[in-house]
Amino acid sequence: MFSNSSKYAIKAVLFLAVNSSEDHRIMVKDMAEPINVPQAYLAKLLQELSRKGIISSKKGPKGGFFLSKENSQLTLMDVVNVIDAGDKFNACLLSLEKCNADKPCPLHDLAIPSRSKFIHSLNQNSIKDFSNQIEQGKVFLPL
Amino acid sequence: MFSNSSKYAIKAVLFLAVNSSEDHRIMVKDMAEPINVPQAYLAKLLQELSRKGIISSKKGPKGGFFLSKENSQLTLMDVVNVIDAGDKFNACLLSLEKCNADKPCPLHDLAIPSRSKFIHSLNQNSIKDFSNQIEQGKVFLPL
DNA sequence: TTTAAAACATGATAAAAATCATATTTAGGA
DNA sequence: TCCTAAATATGATTTTTATCATGTTTTAAA
Fold first, then answer.
1. What is the 3-state secondary structure (H, E, C) of chain B?
2. Of A115, A141, A142, the CB nearest to B114
3. What is the pLDDT of residue A90?
C-alpha cells in the first residue's frame, strides 16, 4: 500500500503535529529515534517535505522542523503524494489498463468499494484532525 | 498492495483457469503475450507456482501448464502467499509493531475494516469461482 | 564578527525487486 | 533409440528503493 518512505513520512508528520509548533521546532536527530526511522534517511525525507511545502523548517541554531497552522490543514494524502509519485490509489489492483467500473477485472468489485472509503478518509481528515484524535486518546502513537 | 510478481501470478492463474485443462495444457510462450507479462519472468513464476503445488505442469513435447481440479479449488490468497512471502495482509499500515485493535495507530480504524473484508473475499472465493464469474460475463479479463 | 548548530543539496552505497539468459531434465514421436 | 519440445533449475543483470555520507548554506548567540 504505502512505500516505506511514505510510512516514514506519515510517522514524521504525525510526530510533528503532536510535538512541534511554530516556536517549538524539532531537530531530525531528536525525532529519528522516537519514530524509529534511520536518521539520515529521515533527514532526506523531511527536506523533501519541507521543499514541497508540506512541513516547515528553520535553519541554524535553534532551528528544526515544525508544522505551521497551514501545514496542519493538509491531509495525509498530500503527504504521500509528495513522497510516492504516481496515481497509485486509483490504479487497478492488477494494474490492468482497461479495468473500470463497466468492465471490472475479477478483483475490482472486491477491492474498490472499500478502498475508495479509505482514500476518502485520507483526503478528508486533516493532519490536525489526526493529532486531535491522538490527544484525545482515541488512537495511539508509539511509532 | 500486491507486488508486481503476485499480480503476474494472479493473472497467470486466472488465465489458466479459463483457458487450460488437464488435457489442454498451455505453454509459457503462448500465455506471456495474452496476459502481458515478460516471458522469462513468467516462466520463473509459473515454475515456482508449480513447485509449490498451486498449478500443475507437464514437461516435454505437448507439455505445458494447467490447473487440476484440486488446483482450481485453491484461492487467490494461496497464490499470493506463495509469491510474496510474509504476513503482509495482517501487518499494520504503518508497520507499527504495537498496533492492534486495543491500541490502534491513527490509520488502523480507517483501513482495517475494509481490508479485512477484502482479505476475506480472497480467502473465500476459489479460483474456480473466479473463472465462473468470468465465463458468466460478470467480470472481464483483458489482462 | 566569529563560531557553531542546524537544515539543505547532492551523490554514493546497499539491498531488494524485477528482468533476462542459459544449461539441464523430462517425455513424446519419428 | 534419437531428436526435439517443453518445463526446471540456477544464476546473472538491471532497475528501483532504501540507506548512508559529506560538503554547503543559513542563522542564533557569544
1. CCCHHHHHHHHHHHHHHHHCECCECECHHHHHHHHCCCHHHHHHHHHHHHHCCCCEEECCCCCEEECCCCHHHCEHHHHHHHHCCCCCCCCCCCCCCCCCCCCCCCCHHHHHHHHHHHHHHHHHCEHHHHHHHHHCCCCCCCC
2. A115
3. 84
